[in-house]
Design brief:
856 residues; mainly alpha; 2 domains; two-stranded antiparallel sheet; elongated; DNA-binding; CRC; nucleus; Tesmin/TSO1-like_CXC; CRC domain-containing protein; TSO1-like
DNA sequence: GAGTTTGAAACT
DNA sequence: CAGTTTCAAACTC
């Protein structure tokens, strides 16, 4: 009987499986036949739980905690699970089962805790798993749906079975699998869906039956549980990458090397992979993300409270959205720095904390990786990071050496940031010991994780000297700062300090790098790839803008007319070149304007806009999207690459990510590079969100649908315009980047893609800006935003509108920079966008404002 | 890892 | 606003 089930795994498995179950479950069978009451009495506690325990995503370290924790999440989980459909779960379950067995075996060998489990059963389970491994993946695929019942999951979560669950789950999973095989074989190779359903129906029964197993094998040590959980999570998350990475990790992990399931696991992973794709395709990725996030939060028992709360509360959505990017990226921090619930919620700090979770570097990583996600699985990247983190953590949890754990984390992140390919990641993940890389990056401002970190000694991280503070994020463990006050504990102080600084310089926390979002849906191809510039420009004297001393260079942007650098040799674009470009742009714009002269119609405006963009395009050669380039060395590469890409600015940003392929192949995209940009992006997004919008809005940026601006009210069009144009630009561009992760495609495709119109407008309008090189009114934007988040007001105050009226050509700032001339082009841009999407978004206001301005 | 260089931020 | 000082990152050895 032990033998039979396994070998026959294919289709014969039915008989064998049934036999197997029968043998062990005679009593169970009877129970099965018996009335439901008896059933419940006997098995109830473990029934569903056991099964789901396997999922255990939460507390990697402390299973019990996990279970106990948030009932809150249960609901979500349920929804999520259901939404996801059976496939995802099935894959997970299956893996868990398999894995659990293997792991259990491995662990069990060294531990007697397993003794409780009847040897025969154990053997069977193991055997089963083995056989399964040999079995066809396809079979697994069919099996994937087996455990999909969300109810069970929920129950499992809610259940307080604790540690035992996981073990039980593993066993039960195996049993279940067997059963499922049986069922499948019975039904034949018919429709998978059908099979799935069938299996699902039986799943409950199976669970109950399994319970017997579970009960018997309840006692397994926490570590085992942890491990199971860990690797289950990734599966559950369904990220292809994750699975692969994890798989490798497991295989490589010393603790797990014994596990026989490595290879098997791979297969399983592949299977799950399929399911995951399906899910994502269904547009459920969001859900998945959410789910993943939630779990992640829960994982950290210590810090779990806030997270849980967030998830559970109405803020959940907000948080989730933010956390999607941030949290996932820097999990370790999340626990501590996720004080979203803090009093300052909605303020910069609040967001900061969020971002803190995702250290800037992370963001960079995200940006880079996201593209991949788009290509394949959107949500994957995020999940991947956190899962990896979790996995490693869990694995190492047993390891007393804390340091190791940290290192591991870093490494995993590092890997991600480096965009190591799935294949290439293996090494990285092996690393438990691989301090070199870390150390290597130690000197860098961003740690291997890509997390921004500082080394402040005298400023207590409360001055802009501190990168963390400047980015609006809290310092975290990776920071080597001394006497740091930029921590959640001192949120008040931080806030006050920030206010002071802002009082001095409204733009202090505004994004330094502005990406002219020339990207227009229609005109994407016409836009310049590397239009991003440093707001204030650099002031390099000796570095020639060829070193990171130069902020422009550091941000991978070219110098602009706003720079006061001497002997600029910025590989991303020399100041001189920029000036030339501007000139050209202006001239072309003039021409176009002349052609249009006299026409106020929107249509004309559109044309003009187009022409302007074309002009931009013309510039592109001059200023290739260097952002993309990692560093000076790679700048050349980047340029070349950039040439292949559409010139739109958004694209530039995304390029990082989109270039992921390139990066991978050529190993380029440096995490550091990405970090920088990401940091900026984060900064922008953060800043915008902080100033303009509530937390939700932040995400909204990425999702054009709901717009914060609408909230602000349409009091004044002009103001709206200004607001929109100024801040949003960066926001948009960055937002777009992010969207790449989450499916920015929508955004671009969206009828009213704010990107172009807004971005352009931004430049043009901003042109008035004082010194701002790009005509981006740094000051304006921040002020406005700062003022109250009601940009309109600020706009009024600044009322750049009139100034804007002047045609951009006059000004030297090519992109809309010219304050004087900006108006014209700016107007046009605005108008252009107006027609497309009036009612949908806040943009409308801005647009409307523009109109008014024009009228005026 | 220590020391130097650099340029932004802060200060006057 | 300009000049100076302070600071921390970037860089070099």
């Amino acid at each position: 009987m032990m033998n039979s089930p396994i070998p026959s795994n294919d289709n014969n498995g039915s008989s064998s499986a049934s036999a197997l179950n029968d043998n062990h479950n005679d009593s169970e069978q009877s129970s099965k036949d018996s009335p439901f009451d008896r059933y419940v009495n006997t098995l109830s506690p473990l029934i569903t739980k056991a099964h789901h325990a396997a999922q255990g995503f939460l507390g990697l370290n402390s299973p019990p905690l996990v279970f106990k924790s948030p009932c809150i999440s249960h609901r979500e989980t349920r929804l999520m699970e259901r939404t996801q459909g059976t496939q995802s779960l099935s894959g997970e379950i299956y893996q868990s089962a398999n894995r659990g067995n293997s792991l259990g075996k491995a662990l069990g060998d060294s531990r007697k805790s397993n003794s409780q489990q009847p040897p025969s059963e154990r053997f069977i389970a193991e055997k089963d798993s083995d056989s399964r491994n040999d079995a066809n993946t396809q079979n697994y695929g069919s099996l994937l749906s087996i455990d999909a019942d969300s109810e069970d999951i929920d129950q499992a979560y809610s259940a307080d079975q604790g540690v035992q669950q996981s073990t039980d789950a593993a066993v039960s999973s195996l049993n279940e699998l067997n059963r499922s095989n049986k069922n499948i074989s019975k039904e034949g190779n018919g429709d998978k869906n059908k099979e799935s359903l069938h299996l699902s129906e039986d799943s409950n029964k199976d669970h109950q039956e399994k319970t017997a197993y579970g009960q018997e094998s309840k006692k397994i040590e926490g570590e085992k549980n942890d491990i199971q959980w860990d690797y289950q999570d990734p599966t559950k998350l369904k990220s292809n990458l994750v699975s692969s990475v994890i798989d490798k990790q497991y295989c490589n992990d010393p603790h797990l090397q014994d596990v026989q399931g490595c290879e098997d696991y791979n297969e399983m992973v592949s299977t799950s992979h399929v399911s995951a794709e399906n899910i994502s395709q269904d547009g459920l990725e969001a859900t998945l993300k959410h789910h993943g996030i939630r779990r992640r939060c829960l994982q950290f028992g210590e810090a779990a409270k806030p997270h849980v709360k967030l998830d559970a509360t109405s803020n959940e959505m907000k948080m989730v959205k933010l956390s999607e990017h941030a949290t996932s990226l820097c999990p370790q921090r999340g626990s501590r720095d996720f004080p979203l619930t803090g009093p300052k919620a909605g303020t910069a700090l609040h967001l900061n904390s969020v971002i803190n979770v995702m250290p800037t570097g992370e963001a960079a990583t995200t940006g880079v990786r996201l593209p991949e996600g788009l290509q394949g699985m959107k949500s994957t990247p995020l999940i991947r990071l956190q899962r990896m983190d979790n996995v490693k953590r869990s694995i190492l949890s047993s390891n007393p050496d804390r340091q190791t754990l940290v290192d591991t984390r870093n490494e995993s992140h590092e890997v991600d940031s480096s965009l190591s390919t799935d294949a290439g990641n293996s090494e990285d993940f092996n690393e438990p010991p691989n301090p070199r890389k870390k150390k290597k990056k130690t000197s860098v401002n961003a740690d291997s994780n890509g997390c921004k970190r500082c080394n402040c000694k005298k400023t207590k991280c409360l001055k802009l000297y501190c990168d963390c503070f400047a980015l609006g994020i809290y310092c975290t463990d990776p920071c080597a700062c001394q006497g740091c006050l930029n921590r959640p504990e001192y949120a008040e102080t931080v806030s006050e300090t920030k206010q002071q600084i802002e009082a001095r310089n409204s733009n202090a926390f505004a994004p330094k790098i502005i990406k002219p979002n020339t990207d227009n849906m229609e005109d994407k191809n016409l836009t310049t790839p590397s239009s991003a510039r440093h707001k204030r420009g650099c002031n390099c004297k000796r570095s020639k803008c060829q070193k990171k001393y130069c902020e422009c260079y550091q941000a991978n942007v070219g110098c602009s007319s706003g720079c006061r650098c001497e002997g600029c040799m910025n590989v991303n674009g020399k100041k001189e070149d920029y000036a030339a470009m501007e000139r050209r742009t202006l001239s072309k714009e003039r021409v176009s304007n002349i052609v249009e002269t006299g026409s106020n119609s929107t249509f004309h405006n559109k044309l003009e806009t187009v022409s302007v963009k074309k002009n931009h395009d013309a510039f592109s050669p001059i200023t290739p999207s260097l952002q993309f380039s990692d560093q000076g060395k790679e700048a050349a590469k980047s340029r070349v690459i950039s040439g292949n890409y559409p010139p739109c600015p958004e694209f530039n940003v995304s390029m990082i990510s989109s270039s992921s392929n390139y990066t991978r192949s050529s190993e380029n995209l440096h995490s550091s590079h990405a970090l920088l940009e990401t940091n900026e992006m984060l900064r922008t997004a953060l800043y915008d969100s902080q100033n303009n919008c509530n937390n939700v809005n932040m995400m909204d940026q990425f999702t054009p649908v709901s717009h914060p601006r609408s909230l602000s009210g349409a009091s004044s069009f002009s103001s709206g315009t200004n607001e929109w144009t100024n801040i949003p630009q960066s926001r948009l561009s960055y937002g777009s980047i992010r969207q790449l992760h989450g499916g920015s495609l929508r955004w671009r495709n969206s009828p009213f893609t704010p990107s172009t119109g807004v971005g352009e407008a931004h430049y043009l309008e901003c042109s008035e800006s004082d010194n701002t090189p790009f005509g981006i009114q740094e000051n304006e934007t921040p002020d406005i935003l700062r003022e109250g988040s009601t940009p309109m007001r600020s706009v009024k105050v600044n009322s750049p509108t009139q100034k804007r009226v002047s045609p951009p050509q006059r000004r030297y700032h090519g992109f809309g920079s010219s304050s004087s001339g900006g108006l014209r082009s700016g107007r046009k841009f605005i108008l252009k966008s107006v027609p497309t999407f009036p009612p949908l978004s806040p943009c409308v206001d801005s647009k409307g404002n523009d109109k008014e301005d024009l009228a005026q």
